[in-house]
Specification:
- The complex is a heterodimer of chains A (108) and B (479).
- Chain A is mainly alpha-helical and 108 residues long.
- Chain A has 3 helices and 2 strands.
- Chain A has a two-stranded antiparallel ribbon with strand order 1-2.
- Chain B is of the alpha+beta class and 479 residues long.
- In chain B, a hairpin with a 2-residue loop joins strand 3 and strand 4.
- In chain B, helix 1 packs across helix 5, helix 3 packs across helix 5 and helix 7 crosses helix 13.
- Chain B is flat.
- The chains are: A mainly alpha (108), B alpha+beta (479).
- Chains A and B meet through strand 2 and helix 2 of A and helix 7, strand 2, strand 3 and strand 4 of B.
């Protein structure tokens, strides 16, 4: 909503008070930072890979991705999305260790 | 003679058997002796030996040899059994290849040793945390990330608060409304910064003559993201303060002007819609107008530059040249160029009279809250610019030139989109024709069909005639 309040005073000059209108990011996509959305998606992909293919390193990377997404997120963003991606990555890690308690071997 | 032969055979067999027995006995004796000797070793260091156990796989291979041995091995425990088997195997081999009897058997000895494969206990069965070092590394990394997040968030928050504290007085004296987050219906002054992110803080000020409102954005570095911190170690970046003043129509005359660092000017000329359209010339060096070489100017016309660059402005720019990234005054501001999709008829983007200031916070990333005070004179410059532009008016020639420029830009735009609009019109016409044809085809009554077809044909002919008339007229005019 865009409200204009006109204030007139005998001694002070006339000025207008305009309320704040957040910039419309749909018309100007360059203003938005895509990092949290990408990281969220990556996190979900990696956690699904970790769960399905039983790869421990995928699950750990998913945890990192969800943390990075959280750090870069906007205050107006939904916390439910963040929490769900975080929970998914944690569950991927836990499941891959329950299925195969062996420690992770480095790729080298 | 046959009997003698038979007796000899029997004796030989006996001897062989005796030998076998003897050998067995020897073997047993050797085995027993060595067995005890080996057992002593085992009792000294049972843990080591247990680990060095050959796997059950080795057991089947030793079973044929086991058969030859006596029952003593069967009575023993499994572990010792396996150990004995290996040992027995060893002993058996050694007994076969006696030093006195054979030569060159040493060569084969190492191979026997090689066949003994010491398997390690799987890591997760070992009771040691050391095998989980990758996991410990991962958790440590996560903890480091969390620590950095907390530290970075707090630092950004402190910087923002320090900035606000030093600028609060100036803003409150100039604006009736300081700090509005847009959540309430009416414009209410919250008196606080609006946090958009962990690294971006907004402040909306309004209620002043000569302007509609001012949006200040504190764009700090992403100190809360460890990846960003590491990336910045390679490529240092500054914190930035961006001030966007939106003006009413009567507050500014029609011109486009920008001044800033050379790099920023080159970049803005390519990126910004209005700068690329109205300021076609390359950025001029600021030295001509008394400002440092490091700053360059983009202007629609020389008169504008002369009008903006008065002594006070020059003083501001000279004393704070290192903190100024860009200053952009425009009546045709519509933001950066937007990539248009193909085939879409475009409208001219909406423009607004805007002043856009981008300042670099000193410190190159390692800023402390004290550095925020050094930005106060720049805010004074902003206020001064707002008041100045209200009074700055182009003369008649300048105004005409500006109007011509704007008309030219609009024409260019229409020409560019003309082709697209023609295409769109063409497709619409074809669609209409197709729809009509379908209607005719679907018509069941043959009479009506014929009549519709004739009507369509007549219309086509009329159009052709019209076109021909037009062409004739144009030819006549040309002549």
């Amino acid at each position: 909503m865009y409200w204009i309040t006109v204030v007139a005073h005998l001694t002070y000059p006339i000025y207008c008070l305009t309320s704040y209108k957040p910039p419309n990011t749909e018309t100007n996509p360059t203003l938005e930072d895509p990092t949290p959305d990408y990281m969220n998606l990556l996190g979900m992909i990696f956690s699904m890979c970790g769960l399905m293919l039983k790869l421990k390193w995928c699950a750990w990377i998913a945890v990192y991705c969800s943390f990075i997404s959280f750090a870069n997120s906007r205050s107006s963003e939904d916390t439910k999305q963040m929490m769900s991606s975080f929970m998914l990555s944690i569950s991927a890690v836990v499941m891959s260790y329950l299925q195969n308690p062996q420690p992770m071997s480095p790729p080298w | 003679a046959v009997v003698k032969y038979l007796l000899c055979v029997v004796r030989l067999q006996h001897a062989g058997r005796y030998n076998d027995d003897f050998d067995d006995g020897e073997d047993i004796a050797e085995f027993d002796d060595n067995d005890f000797a080996e057992f002593e070793d085992v009792s000294e260091d049972p843990a080591v030996d247990v680990e060095k156990e050959p796997p059950p796989r080795a057991a089947p291979s030793s079973t044929p040899i086991e058969d030859e041995e006596d029952e003593a091995t069967v009575e023993n425990e499994d572990g010792q059994d396996e150990f004995e088997d290996a040992d027995a195997q060893d002993q058996d081999m050694y007994s076969k290849y006696d030093n006195e009897e054979f030569e060159g058997h040493e060569k084969t000895n190492p191979s026997f040793k090689d066949t003994l494969i010491y398997r390690e206990v799987p890591a997760h069965l070992q009771n040691s945390w050391e095998s989980y070092y990758m996991e410990i590394l991962m958790v440590t990394g996560l903890l480091a990330y969390i620590m950095n997040y907390i530290i970075g968030k707090n630092k950004n928050s402190r910087l923002a608060q320090a900035w606000f504290n030093s600028h609060r007085e100036l803003l409150e004296s100039n604006f009736a409304l300081v700090g509005d987050d847009g959540t309430s219906k009416e414009a209410t002054s919250t008196g606080k910064l609006n946090q958009e992110n962990e690294h971006i803080y907004n402040l909306w000020c309004s209620g002043r003559v000569c302007c509609e409102g001012m949006l200040i954005q504190l764009k700090f570095l992403k100190r809360q993201d460890l990846l960003n911190v590491l990336a910045r170690m390679m490529r240092p970046v500054c914190d930035q303060v961006q001030v966007k003043v939106t003006l009413n129509d009567e507050d500014m005359d029609t011109f486009v002007f920008a001044v800033g660092s050379r790099k920023a000017m080159a970049r803005l000329q390519k990126e910004m819609q209005d700068l690329s359209e109205f300021c076609g010339d390359k950025p001029k060096s600021g030295a001509k107008y008394g400002i440092p070489e490091s700053l360059s100017i983009l202007s629609e016309m020389g008169e504008v530059t002369d009008g903006v660059m008065d002594s006070k402005m020059v003083h501001y720019l000279t004393s704070h040249a290192d903190k100024i990234e860009s200053i952009h005054f425009s009546d045709q501001f519509s933001g950066p160029k937007v990539m248009q999709e193909e085939g879409q008829p475009l409208k001219l983007p909406e423009t607004k009279k805007t002043l856009l200031f981008t300042f670099n916070v000193p410190g190159m990333g390692n800023t402390s809250p004290k550095d925020m005070d050094s930005l106060l004179p720049l805010m004074n410059m902003v206020i001064y610019s707002i008041d100045k532009l209200k009074k700055l008016r182009l003369n008649r020639e300048g105004k005409q030139k500006a109007d011509r420029n704007r008309a030219r830009v609009e024409e260019n735009f229409l020409k560019q989109t003309h082709a697209q609009r023609q295409e769109a019109a063409q497709t619409r016409r074809e669609e209409k024709k197709r729809a009509e044809k379908e209607r005719i085809m679907n018509e069941e009554d043959p009479d009506r069909q014929r009549r519709l077809e004739e009507a369509a044909q007549r219309r086509e002919q009329k159009k052709l005639e019209k076109k021909q008339m037009k062409m004739k007229q144009i030819k006549v005019k040309a002549m």
